[in-house]
Amino acid sequence: MDDTRAWPRRLRLADDFWFVAHDDASGSPRLGSVALGLGLAGGLLGELVLFRSVAVSSGRVLLLNARPLPDPDSQAIMQQMFAEPEHDVRTWLSYLSRGADEMVAARLVRAGLVTREAQRRLFTTTVAHRPLDMSFAFWRSVRLKQVLAGGRERPEWQDIVLAGLVYSTGLFRAVLLEDFAAGDAYLRRCLERMDPSLREIIAQVATLVGDSVLAVRG
Amino acid sequence: MSLSPPGIRSSVVATALASDRLGVRHIIFFVITAAAPLTVIAGVVSTGWAVTGIEGIPLAFLLVAVVLALFCVGYVAVARRVRNSGAFYSYVARGLGKPLGVGASFVGVAAYGMMQIATYGALGSATAALVQEKTGVSLPWWAIALVAWVFVAVMGVNRVELNGRVLAVALIAEVVLVVVYDLVDLAHPFHGHLSVATLSPHSLAGGGLGVALAIAVTGFIGFEAAAVFSEESRDSDRTVPVATYLSLAFMVVLYMGSAWAMSVAIGPANLHHAAQQQGTNLPFTIVAQHLGSNLLVDLGQVLFISSLLAAALSYHSTTARYLFALGRERVLPGVLGRTGVRSMAPVYASLTQSAAGLLVIAAYAVTGADPLVKLFFWGGTVGGFGVLLLITGTSIAVIGFLHRHRQGETLWQRGIAPVLASAGLIVVVYLILDNFSGLLGVSPTSSLRWALPGVFGLFAVAGLVWALVLRSTRRQVYAAIGLGALASDLSGYPIQVPTASATTAVRSSTR
Predict the structure, then answer these.
(1) Integer Cα distance of B282 and B276 in angstroms
(2) How many CB pairs below 8 A link A and B?
(3) Which of A121, A137, B213, B344 gets the highest tally of CB atoms within 10 A of its CB?
């Protein structure tokens, strides 16, 4: 996989978020578990919007069609949404955030981009996911920086949603480092023209992440 | 504001979300830990007797509990409907308008911040006294306060939460010990007579009423926290009200009972003198007189310190959450709304409160002011008064809010109880303000009697003016006040913050 020509140029939104939100070498998360889950959930829901299967408006998820989706996980989420259409977007994001890390990691394992390995700690054994190709994992963050620098990469909406989710989960500063101010301004300009469904997902993720900071768990 | 009908069929989503929600017991534990019973009994009550000489503190606990219980009727009804971003001020903003909401939020920051910093005074002086008694080494109180300060600051920035089991054991030990003390006290009444003088209205005659009420209010602060859990509780319709009322009932029985038991053992007339001599050791020394062993006393002193530390941590996170909530709505600088990437701690909000704490400790250390009376007692009761102002404002806001959203609430819940509570709270505020010099133990002509409560007036006006400035200069920020949303200015474009879902509890959909 070290041949960069073999790297997939496009990843699905949640997959891309996974790479940005995990250490490229060790695969350990760079975010707290709540924010990580919410960012990935935003990615999964954003994929459905990008597929034109759902829209988000005023806190509701609108199911647009029952077209079969290429990804079995997206398909499963759609089926759940059809089964219980009464929930608002906030509830869906909270719900999806629970298993999102596991779901997206499994998807990446299937795609051959990530390996699943048991890590033995002192007393317990935990399962961790590590990028198979460190350079590829690192490149996803670099690519995002390039997009936000307004440079040679022509941005696609998916990239801007990714940047928005990175912003909402509080990772933006850590990803952009010295390019923060320029990237921040660029992102804001793009968001103005963004599809309202995607913009609302980004906003809802930000609100939920903030609420989790305020939540007291004694 | 449409609430979907209660879940008719079982929902996979709701079941999954409910799996790790909090029950009544968990919330009560949290509330009582934050209220820190020994901090109230050994710290606030003993110092209260020493500073003011008012006997009727036990009766005051009962009176305040009744008013607060009335307040809770409307309060928990609003908590069911407004998704609480962790602060009273969103209620005030929604009930009385955004300018008053921001004013209330500033008062809240000042009041909780004061109470938090106050705990360092007692932590320092009680620990220093204990160390000297046991080892003969004399440490300055501020050195110990600084150690506690570092501990709280580090915990706050990393959002390390103390192990729930450790806290529970400490809390249960604290409560058991207090009950044992009470039984020992009651078994050895002064002159063999079980006096009920401190429970009779005479004990609050004259200026004493306001003073005793202020002390009692300070003891109850923390009861309001249960509503913060409305979204995290298993069944917000039931869990939060039950936890709120049970916490309040538990506190009034424990505080009133203990204060009364102490007065029985010491004799009402001797309270002032004994408390002045013994300070925060008062409950422990009475017991020591009657029991041959010092074990219970030593244990009590250690638990008092751990209780103070728990209170310091809890008020620290309350203040930091207020600052964070204001920061993320951009009412205060956005940096306060920033969190640690990995820890998800409100880093800058926490550091702000810690910086204020350090300044105050330093100021007291340099000027040599008494840490127990002038930091702990003044800071605690003045801060408690500030929270009382916030509660009063919230209570009035509750009337306004429930008047507009009356479905599902009885006349008692939406009208009678909130009006009675507001009237009661206003009377309590008036009585305290009228006797503020007695509370502080200063002469009635002292400028402090107006200066200290006046701080909250300044903060309230500053918040109000600031909200009006925001309204004319930064409309998006103003629009999002109290909604808990960073949404609007993320893009610099007015995102349709979904009012319905952002502000109404998803009570049916999460069942």
Answers:
(1) 9
(2) 158
(3) B213
Give alpha helix (H) positions in B206-346. Answer: 208-220, 239-266, 271-278, 282-290, 295-328
Residue B214, number of CB atoms within 10 A of its CB: 31
> Which class for A170: exposed (0-12), middle (13-18), buried (19 or more C-beta within 10 A)?
buried
Question: Which tens digits make up the pLDDT trace of A52-89?
Answer: 999 998 888 999 988 888 889 999 999 999 999 888 89
Residue B361 has pLDDT above 90, yes or no: yes
Is there a contact between B344 and A60 if contact means CB atoms under 8 Å apart?
no
Tokens 């009908």 label which residue? B5
Contacts of residue A89 in chain B, CB cutoff 8 Å? Answer: 498, 501
Contact (CB<8Å) A218/B491: no
- In 3D space, the residue among B395, B446, B405, B288 whose CA is nearest the CA of residue B2 turns out to be B405
Q: Among A63, A73, A66, which Cα is nearest to A105's? A: A73
What is residue B161's predicted lDDT score, i.e. its pLDDT? 66
Nearest CA in chain B to A186: B491
Inter-chain touch A218–B29, beta carbons under 8 Å: yes
Q: How far is CA B42 from the centre of its chain?
A: 17
Q: From CA B56, how far away is CA B204, in angstroms rounded?
A: 5
Tell me whether A55 touches chain B (CB under 8 Å): no
Complex confidence, ipTM: 0.86
Q: Pick the residue with more confidence: B289 or B346?
A: B346
Average of pLDDT values for B405-412?
83
Q: Please give the structure tokens belonging to residue B454.
A: 């006046």
Determine the pLDDT at residue B115. 95
CA–CA min distance B308, chain A (Å): 16
Tokens (6 digits) for B354: 């810690």
* B476-B482-B488 Cα angle (round to 5): 30
pLDDT tens-digit map of B240-250:
889 899 999 99
Mutation site, A34, A36, A79, A211, interface B, largest B CB count within 10 A: A211
Cβ–Cβ gap A170/B484 under 8 Å:
no
Residue range B108-148, pLDDT digits in tens? 999 999 999 999 999 999 999 999 988 989 999 999 999 99
**Residue in B231, B341, B506 to test binding to A, most A beta-carbons within 10 Å:** B341
The C-alpha atoms of residue B308 and residue B43 are separated, in whole angstroms, by 9
Q: What is the pTM (predicted TM-score) of this model?
A: 0.88
Half-sphere exposure of B251 (CA within 13 A, CB side): 36
